[in-house]
Amino acid sequence: MTAPAPARPSARPPARPPARPSARPPIVTGPFVLRLFTVVGSSIGFFLPFAVVPEYVERSAGAAVAGAANAALLVTTVAVELAAPALVARFGYRWALGLGLLALGGPALVLLATSGAWAVLAVSVVRGAGFAVTVVAGGALTAELVPAARRGEGLALAGLVSGGCALLALPAGSWLAGTAGYGAVFAATAVLSVLPVLTVPFLPGRPPAAPRGAGVLAGLRAPRLTRPAMIFAASAAGTGVLCTFVPLAVRGGPAWLAPAALLAQSAAATLAKWAAGRSGDRRGHERLLLPGVVLSAVGLAAVSLTGWSACVLAGAAVFGAGFGILQNATLTLMYDRARPEMFSTVSALWNAAYDGGMAAGAFAVGLLAPLTGYPVALLVTAGLMATAALLAPPDGRATAARFIALVVTSASVRRRARTTG
């Protein structure tokens, strides 16, 4: 009986277990949490007294100064946003954020002593400058703190904190003024804006050194940055129109319609911003530009049907979804296309597009609506917003052309019906 032959060694090495996918880098780190404290301070500091200051100054200086107070705040914000990258490059994130928060909150204490027109306007100018520096420096710092692979999601998270604070602070200011007086609003603004300065020393100090010619002018000459900014400015113009004129356009409808539409817009934008961040990080942010433009334009076109409450409500929600998508996709795309030393420039261009677009939309419809009525003015705005699809990837151009043609035809029909009726 022969012994069994020994087993031959296998020529193949044993199969290795499949490699485990590397863990996704975390978003919520210590510096990021500290950054969120400054987000809360700047958002509350801006919005808590926003609706209160005009009412406060109107009693002593009249309606013209009441309107000029927030106009000075917004105009200064846009102007200083474009100059802020140079300040950030010179002094770094800590000094820029600290000075911005102090300038945003500290001057509110002046209003405890006076409601004079010049004092209120001066306070508004200083506060606008402080807010501009805060959002530009803070936006660039957020982009630097978040891993590039999850930048859209991280920016969405910071945006949720900022938007949530704004949503609560705006009505809270009016409520606090009515229950505890104007002084309580101004004191709370100062404290809540300045308190986060205590976290600033623990944040990163300086952005990467920028080469000569890497400022705002260089950013304006870069189509890879200006195209997303212009797309977002178009949607921001619709936001300015919606927030300013929808309460006027639906005055004949149910009393609940205007606040419900504004709430639907805000809620949809918040949810869409988060969804766009997660989707864009996985599949690319550029592919979200066209859907964002289309939803924004279609939503505002539906809102123009002011005689139908369901259309106004649904349109506001659809518009909000498109605006939220563009809010995240354009900002993330601009950061992805820039070197870290250009992050302050990206933040400045995007924030200027946001504030400037809102102001331009409200101003233009304010001139157009007396001539055409609110429904036609809203519809024309939707058509103009749709032209932003021409700046999206090439497959957006045919869609934009069809939608613009439809809007022009609808506006002509409504205009003819209005003049003959």
From TrEMBL:
Transmembrane segments: 32-52, 64-88, 95-113, 119-143, 155-176, 182-203, 229-250, 256-276, 288-308, 314-335, 347-368, 374-392
Record's compositionally biased regions (Pro residues): 11-23
InterPro entries: MFS, MFS_dom, MFS_Exporter, MFS_trans_sf
Residues covered by the Major facilitator superfamily (MFS) profile domain: 29-400
Domain of life: Bacteria
Main location (coarse class): membrane
Gene3D superfamilies noted in UniProt: MFS general substrate transporter like domains
Keyword field: Membrane, Transmembrane, Transmembrane helix
Disordered as annotated region, ranges: 1-23
Biased composition (Low complexity): 1-10
Membrane topology: Multi-pass membrane protein
Compartment list: Cell membrane
Protein name, per record: MFS transporter
Origin species: Actinomadura luzonensis
Lineage of source species: Bacteria, Bacillati, Actinomycetota, Actinomycetes, Streptosporangiales
